[in-house]
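Re: that backbone. C-alpha cells:
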C-alpha cells in the first residue's frame, strides 16, 4: 500500500473519531441551549400570566390547556409553599394543521405556584419543543455530509500536494 493511501487511511479514521465526538457534544450543547431558551420564555410567560390574572380574575381557574398553553388550579397554602419552579419535558395533546386529530407532542413545562388575594394557585405553562428524534435524525445527516466533505477535501488536498511535491522536488 502506498504511503499516500496509508496517510489518508489514518486521517479518515482520525476524522471519523473527531467528528463523531464533536457531533455528540454538539447535540447535547444544542439541546441544552434550546431548553435554556425555552425556559427563559416560560419564565417570562409565567410573569405575564400572573400579572394578567391579578388584573382580570376571570382566568383564575383554567383547567385545560388550550391555545394559550397554560392551566391554573387552586391549591392549599401548604402545597403552594412546597412548590418550587420546576421545568420538565413532557407531552400534551396538540393538533397541527396536517393532523386529523390531536397527537402527543413534546413540550417543555414550567410548574410553579403563586398567591393572589389570600388564595394559592398552581400554574403550569407549556411551550412546544423540537422533537428529539427529528433533531437527532437531522444532525446525523448533517454529520454524514460533513464527514463526506472532509473525506473529499482530504483526498483532493492530499493528491494536489503529492503532485506538487513530485513536480518540484523530483525534477
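Recovered sequence:
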Amino acid at each position: 500500500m502506498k504511503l499516500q493511501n496509508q496517510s489518508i487511511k489514518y486521517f479518515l479514521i482520525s476524522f471519523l473519531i473527531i467528528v463523531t465526538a464533536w457531533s455528540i457534544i454538539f447535540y447535547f450543547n444544542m439541546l441544552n441551549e434550546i431548553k435554556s431558551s425555552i425556559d427563559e420564555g416560560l419564565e417570562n410567560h409565567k410573569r405575564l400570566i400572573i400579572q394578567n390574572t391579578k388584573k382580570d380574575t376571570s382566568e383564575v381557574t383554567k383547567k385545560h390547556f388550550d391555545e394559550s398553553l397554560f392551566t391554573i388550579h387552586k391549591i392549599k397554602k401548604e402545597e403552594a409553599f412546597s412548590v418550587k419552579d420546576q421545568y420538565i419535558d413532557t407531552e400534551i395533546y396538540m393538533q397541527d394543521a396536517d393532523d386529523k386529530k390531536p397527537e402527543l407532542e413534546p413540550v417543555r413545562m414550567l410548574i410553579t405556584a403563586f398567591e393572589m388575594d389570600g388564595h394559592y394557585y398552581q400554574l403550569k405553562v407549556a411551550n412546544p419543543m423540537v422533537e428529539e428524534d427529528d433533531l437527532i435524525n437531522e444532525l446525523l445527516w448533517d454529520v454524514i455530509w460533513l464527514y463526506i466533505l472532509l473525506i473529499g477535501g482530504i483526498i483532493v488536498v492530499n493528491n494536489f500536494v503529492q503532485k506538487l511535491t513530485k513536480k518540484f522536488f523530483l525534477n
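The mean pLDDT is 86. Helices lie at 3-55, 77-82, 132-169.
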